[in-house]
């Protein structure tokens, strides 16, 4: 059994991750930390969670485990990752700290100096596009939830060099409220969210823009700018991104891309391309470990890709398990059946 | 025009009250206070609210208006009521501070000394059962939201001495989330409330038990104990109370009470008794100023009364306007058409 | 008083229209029809609706009133409009029957011959862009709900000839469930919609594409194609459209358009442009008669306009009242205060 | 492997049952029927369901399997159960057809003659109170969802003869919308349910009253009448029943019952009694196979029991699997880990 520790187990991502690791056949949860609930159990925080004891992060010893999962806020995660790596453990960081290759870009988007620049660049933990670099890695940056949905939607077009050069990629994304975290805020108050629907940080203002563009550029040259508009949905979980791609008509007709996507994702255990004519909905992915994609060709210039994931699973916890499995040489979907 | 001031205008009750007073034909809002949004406007806090400027409570002068409405937390409201009354203004207190007749009982339920005992006992502002004492009063205790729903359900039985002596009155009540206030808490986080339903303070633990029993006892001798079980509904507003009354079969058959209720509330502008066979639902009352009641006789011993109100209107703001109208000799439903 | 009749009063739009006309100071509801609830009252169908008696459409006499409002399905509405006009009444058609100028285009999108081609082209009832042709008209086509939201978002750019020629206009729209009508369907079943979010008819498949492009072309030459993607939101009412406009950078910088919108809509009683930096949310418009717009310039090529309305009000019933007021020479917002 | 067939696999209960049996280690789904989707697959009906082919019920052969599960409407289920039993298969009936011991009582509550009276009385499939009669049975009546929640709440008091003789037992119950089935109706339309909360069939009118009282009487003499008030919650799944029991104070103080419940359910794998002071909420049970109970003693005469289950799992599908396991001599929670 591989011994693991979970930092930040009582956030929404931490709870899901604890559930997954609790019944993972090759993992054993040695500790789970919580700042505010240390001394209690995870089941005491959330009724249907496993009965894991919660310890203070200060009392957790990363050197006592084989791997740590960091469900901590950005800037808090990287120092723990660094300490864990020093102590010989591997680290899967679910925060944003290891996602950007460059400390300078990190400072630009997050407004502070990077807390552990020697860990950069870290392997980007989206197995479908970077599996080879994740396998055996000592630390991995688990992608952002929005970034996962958008990258899996756009990646095949990048690889096929199908996009109109310099035309913007427009991703209109909608996320459930758990994506905003468990700390109570007015924007997550039930009476403010129920019956409402709200855009936020639209255009090029959201931090995931940097992460998505970095990976698009790394994987296929430079497409046009990403325009990314997140919205808050009155549901507890799930992300749906409606992506408008402008195609280079010299490349292939919009109708040809269904085959491209099916082939590219044919062997992926966690990505499903719907049959032509069907549209992905949030229900296709919520409480699953999968990204589900649908393709709607509009005309020779435009392709709409709808991409859905569960923000807490494929957008965070189950993707972390995929990465964990790859890092330790296990089957990628181990524990995700 | 009657000049009024609103203390605590940015809570959910304050916003509704501001809407009502803003278009009340006989009232003019001279000031509206907010601790955290002073300097802004109410429309800046909530998009569809009136464009009232918000002032700090310290800068508001209760002596400059004819009446103040207090949408403040308990213990904070009574001192402002006292100051307003001293300055010659009338006060409608929407907090719990003036609801209990006795400072000792207040201390017992609220855990602190009463901040203005010389205002007790205050007229209880439920017009349907206490209109005569509200008319012309200088200060009034606006009832609790649950108390309004339960008292209007049970009052006719009390008046008719129809209850089985010493049998408990069971009120199983369900409230929308706005009843918990606008301050973000984990218990009002969207992701915790959506898809959930939770009892809290059930039995005889909720503070409204004291208020309801006080009024039941005042109005008709001593029935059995109130068992009151509030639950949090995943809706933004509305209260539905399902009340189980055990009848004295020597008095009248359960089926006779429909006529009793219809007669007792026939002339009430803000209470409606549904025809026999219909059941009240939350939708009957949400966004209205009314209490809607339905009666379901079960057998000779048991009558079920379903009582619904909008917690922010008949349970708070529009009831405060009824009281304001009565205090100033206006038509009781003035501004509520 | 102007006598009016409402056909189809028990659908969601009909109920809202009945509420508005019931308290309209210049209108008197002479009849309200319902196929399935004839003989009852509107309040019997929906608790908080006005107590209007419901008559069978066959028994309603359009010649007995000054105006009829048609909340009927397409193909059913136009014949009633024709009959009403023949009988001397004016007609506001809330169905799609009179929206398209040409019977051929109607057949193409609706799959049947137009039921009353002599009424085409009808004045398009979006007051903000066609007020002059609505005033005094004998019949008017009330716009589609999505069309209202998208046209008010794009119209200023069309007038200013600011769009990049031939670039697509992308409108990613989200609607509450009442937009799908009151007839129960699996797609509107609570257990299918709650926690879900679904695209439908995306690309250029939705019927409102024809209507929106017709009006864009009429008002300013030919922009690029409209790409329109509706989604079903788990809320009961409201539409939010996120519109991505590609600008001709030779015209003006994206940042200049805030002033353009403010000026164009300055005197409009039912359109509000938010201050720069604010984003429109569904809550800005739900249960109001207004369209609320926010502008987010992204770069010199792209402007995002967020447009929100209440689909049942500005998207249907209150817009019909605006048109009614204009047709009869009343103040446009009469009855909408 | 035990071969099983599922009749009515596309209703909400059928889908859950198919999920459970699909991964049950000892069961193999030989067929799944659907009247309206025959020829398709279950995954085509509901995205995340297993890819089971759907056959017409007429083409399914109950003689080809070891057991059938009947997720059919009442009156349709019993004839299939009879045919299956004749053909040598065992039957777990999730409809109401086999729940009442007497055909006369069935006719009284369901308004039709019982379709297979020779199967009555059938073992009542609530393992916690009737395990001995389920083990090895050839057919079993799976309990109603409300009945499960209420019986598990009240059963310990019945066994302990703790109830005040002839005093009513009041069960105020609230259910998610999936309990009303998948067939679209106005009462399950999203726009009617969202933001609403509705009682229905309250008092002694709901059919589960007969079933609950039958089992209470069978298990412990005759308590007072059950007063049972179901309400429709705006959530997709889950039942919470707030049960008010009037105690015989000669028996034991209300505070003593926590120990009683803990002891009675100590070894039950699917029933959990919360620690004193905690209250059960819907979230404790939704998407689990368990009934969770909390006890709140009010005074010496009254005990409140809150009982929660997932209506589709412990209230239907997973309870059917418990029964299946017992009938075939498997571990009761096999397939429910």
Protein topology:
The structure is a homotetramer of 337-residue chains.
Chain A: E1 2-7, H1 12-22, E2 27-33, H2 42-45, E3 54-55, E4 67-70, H3 77-86, E5 90-93, H4 103-110, H5 127-134, E6 139-141, H6 145-159, E7 169-175, H7 190-193, E8 198-199, H8 208-220, E9 226-232, E10 239-246, H9 257-264, E11 271-273, E12 291-299, E13 302-309, H10 317-327
Parallel strand pairs in A: 1-2, 1-4, 2-3, 4-5, 5-6, 7-9, 11-12
Antiparallel strand pairs in A: 7-10, 8-9, 10-13, 12-13
Main sheet characteristics of chain A: 7 strands, mixed
Return the domain count of chain A.
2
Instruction: Name the CATH class of the largest domain in chain A.
Output: Alpha Beta
Average of the residue pLDDT scores of chain A: 96
Q: Helix-strand pattern of chain A, N to C? A: EHEHEEHEHHEHEHEHEEHEEEH
Q: Give the fraction of residues assigned to helices of chain A.
A: 25-40%
Helix/strand-derived category of chain A reads alpha/beta
Kindly summarize this structure in a few lines:
Four copies of one chain form a homotetramer. Chain A is α/β, with parallel strands linked by helices and 337 residues long.
